[in-house]
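My main concern about presentation is that the manuscript never shows what a single data entry looks like. The format is easy to grasp once an entry is in front of the reader. For illustration, here is how one protein appears when written out as sequence plus structure tokens:
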Amino acid sequence: MTRHTSIAALLVAGLLAGCGKEAAQNITEAPPANSRIRFFNFGVGAPGVNFYADATKMSAIASTTGSESVTGIVYGGVSATGDYSAIAPGTHVVTGKIAAATDKDLTIASVSTTIEDGKFYSFYMSGFYNTTTKTSDAFVVEDPFTQPTDFTVASVRFVNAIANANPMTLYAKSTVTGTEVPVGAEVAYKGAGAFTTVPAGVYDLSTRYTGSSTNAIARTAVSFSGGKVYTIGARGDITVVSTTATNRPFLDNTANR
């Protein structure tokens, strides 16, 4: 046997010895982030916040100073302009934390929720911000939508984030035909209606209490594009009658997909 052959044999023997049971490694990986979540600040009077899942920051506002923005997602806002963020399946504590320098990172809203693999969710800060306890109500709903393959229709559902409103039904009235249809059934506070198919077009929206013909909230000229999915979220103080006040009852339109 030549000198080079002997060296090669020794190297192979060493490699084989390193492949024994003692060398085997058990690598446990975290579940992939196949699920999605987005965040709404619908807490009346709430400060701007950053949203977190456990210790992971899930929302951010662009800053030109090199430091984290102290603005956060303000009242009426949604993270990532309505887009979803990836999140791993499992149980998470989802929070809204003050973005401003005063009370920086103080948690004002918190929900423990279970995220299932491959599903979509929305987190809502809701109700009224308590300036004494520095807390806001919050809830999480699943977004079980299917994107229409028929581009003559859109899919729409209603979420009620107004703490002092009775259960309401959302109605959509075509600005072309004048035909009005309910979008799902009655929805109570912290509830979400079913996604309902409507013809693509422009609609005047309203919500009404059961048995009432008077609109509790109204919004005109809302467009639903064919093949798209939308959530209409009710926010604000139902007792406010001003049409310009920040805390007036309002119907927010955000596309899911």
User: Anything to note?
Assistant: The chain has two domains: 30-144, 145-257. The CA atoms of residues 170 and 207 lie 4 Å apart.
